[in-house]
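Late entry, written up from scratch paper. The run itself happened at the end of the previous shift, but nothing got recorded in the book at the time, so transcribing now.
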Amino acid sequence: MSNVVEADFTPGIGMTTTQAPFIEKARENGELYIEQPYSLYSEENHETWRQLYHRMHPQWEKYANEHFLKGIENLCLDPNKVPKLEDVNKFLNPLTGFRAKPVSGYIPAFQFFECLRNRDFPTTITMRMAEKLDYLPEPDIFHDIAGHVPMHTDKAFAETLVRFGECAHTAAMIGKDIKDKEVQNRKVNSIIKAMARFFWFTIEFGLMNDQSTGSIKAYGSGLLSSYGELEYAIKSPDVQRYPVQLEWVVNQYFEIDTYQPLLFVVDGFDHLFSLVDELELWMKEGKLDNVAFGEPAVGGADIRSFLDA
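Output as recorded:
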């Protein structure tokens, strides 16, 4: 049970990103998994959700894949208010076993993947500021619930996330078997970097061939929660779109504060699942031990989370 109690804070005080006393207190206490203090959301938080949802909906209808659109319908999200995670989970859990799990902030890499393996999705519960509708470098509840979670209602996609979480166990075992500490840190760093890049170019910014129309649709949550980048990713002549190639994905750096100039296309979630299988095989064969330098940076906490698993 959390030591940070909703009743200790003024109702409507706000759950705004970087400005939420409830989250600050949870972090001070070292609490990672928390409750959603719903009464603390301000009217501005709800209005921000409403604006984001209503302007994204037409974009989803044009550019989102069919599984996402069905997921939005199945979740019965209120377009006018920040959702209660317990309500989201009532609709989500019976479909795929997944549930949104509220967290106070950043989760070390292994714990994040372990959550996926256990069908828990670490969910940010703060809301971006009203003046930052278009872009926020860190996730917020709109990105996580309106961007990620509708995809979690699809069984094939959900199984892919679980499979990806299982890969973290393989990576941890590989790391533990290396006796030389310098070699161990270098190889685990490289494997985590490869996994992060795979997640970025698929789960966050993935595109999919739409077999029924012959067009390309978005399934990545970073696209599906961004008004500007969703259309840009599908329509802009400045974006390079290529059939996904694992060797390219794991060696391709990315930047988080700009529209993505390079995106990868999968044929479907069976295809994506097979790529996760291949990723794990490459781990075991040592093909991820020396991926290209560059973003994302891997912190010491991430490396330790794998070695201490």
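The chain has 13 helices and six strands.
(Scratch paper discarded after transcription.)
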